[in-house]
Design brief:
By secondary structure, this protein is an all-alpha fold. The protein is built from four helices and no strands.
């Protein structure tokens, strides 16, 4: 009976720990999205003299790079409290971010081709799904605790 109680307490505390990490991850993601949107707006204003396509592309890339660096640093130190090698985890994070962006575009395009409008709904479905995949990749691969 004592072992059952100890195992139950351990499972409960482990799930609470996972919940806390996931909530920190969600807050970090929302904060990074706000940073991304604010920087996008600022860069669009700064590049207003350029053609719309160039201004939007440049603003998007710069905002995403800066918000991704912020997100990496927050996730590494506060969310996952990792001591992973910065070069290795940073490189892996960059690859994951690029892959996630490409996957989102591909999924939205595929759903749009298969079902038509509304693109926004497909984008939401793709990005919510990728949010959970992103969490698992970061927790289990990029910022995994060393045993």
């Amino acid at each position: 009976m004592h072992t059952f109680f100890r195992n139950t307490v351990h499972r409960f505390s482990s799930s609470q720990g996972l919940t806390a990490v996931f909530l920190r991850f969600a807050c970090s993601s929302m904060g990074s999205a706000v940073i991304d949107l604010c920087l996008f707006q600022i860069f669009c204003l700064l590049f207003a003299g350029l053609s719309d396509k160039i201004a939007i592309l440049t603003a998007t890339i710069l905002a995403r790079v800066i918000s991704s660096v912020c997100n990496y640093l927050i996730n590494r130190t506060l969310v996952f409290q990792s001591d992973a090698d910065t070069l290795q985890s940073g490189s892996s994070y960059a690859i994951l971010t690029i892959a996630k962006t490409a996957a989102s575009a591909w999924i939205v395009s595929a759903l749009y081709q298969a079902f038509g409008e509304p693109k926004l709904v497909w984008k939401i479905i793709a990005d919510v799904t990728l949010f959970f995949v992103n969490f698992l990749c970061q927790k289990l691969l990029i910022f995994a605790k060393k045993k």
